[in-house]
Amino acid sequence: MLLVKIHQQDAKIRMATTDPLLYLHIADPKVEISSEPLQLEIHQPAAEVIIDNYPSDYSRGIKNFMDFERDNARKAMENAYEAVGKIASDGARLARIENKGTLAQLAKEAMNPKTVEINVGSVAEPTLQVTTHEAEIKVIPGRQNINLKPGSVTGDLRQGSVHVTMVQYPQIYYQVVDSSVDIQT
Q: Which is a Pfam family this sequence falls into (predicted)?
């Protein structure tokens, strides 16, 4: 009798796997804000002041040459008229010599000192002239500087891998057993 024996050996494989990895690098966005303040420039030229002291000086007797000569000429004329008047009145009194005591009275008047008059007057104010200038105002507006640096996302992918190694190959063994034939393959 013929007997067939079949043995089967399955294939065996070894698998080595590496998981894939994804590395993400994130750079945050940045906002840079800088500002320049408003500038205000104000410039005002100085006021001009003109002071004329001549009226005040004139009332105190400080005069220029022209006014001094004119006032002296006027006073000289007044003194001349007064002297002529006095001589004329004295002459008229002497013409009436028949009145007794006229010469004595004239001599007595000549001996009496003249009374001095002191007049108190006001002093004129100096003349002031003030010229003002407008203020010059210059406004330089401020500024806002905004610089935006966008963020970024970069990815680094390390791929996974699968390594397959055959550890055992498939095989089929069969054997025919007979009393007369023994075949093995």
A: DUF6470
Q: What is the pTM of this model?
A: 0.35
38 phi and psi, to 5 degrees? -65, 140
Bridge-partner residues for 49, per DSSP?
A: 130
Contact (CB, 8 A) for 137 and 124: no
Radius of gyration of the chain (CA): 70
pLDDT tens digits, 78-132 = 999 999 998 888 777 777 776 666 777 777 777 777 777 887 778 888 888 999 9
Mapped onto helix, strand or coil, the DSSP state of residue 84 is: helix
Beta-carbon contacts of residue 21 (< 8 Å; ≥ 6 apart): 157, 158, 160
pLDDT (0 to 100) of residue 74: 93
Q: Name the phi and psi angles at 39, rounded to 5.
A: -115, 135
* Residue type (1 letter), 35: S
Which DSSP category does 19 fall into? -
Domain positions in the chain are 45-133
Tell me the C-alpha distance between 96 and 73, whole Å. 35
What is the distance between the alpha carbons of residues 166 and 10, in angstroms, rounded to a whole number?
A: 11
Tens-place pLDDT, residues 25-49: 899 999 999 888 889 899 988 999 9
Q: CB count, 10 Å around CB of 59?
A: 14
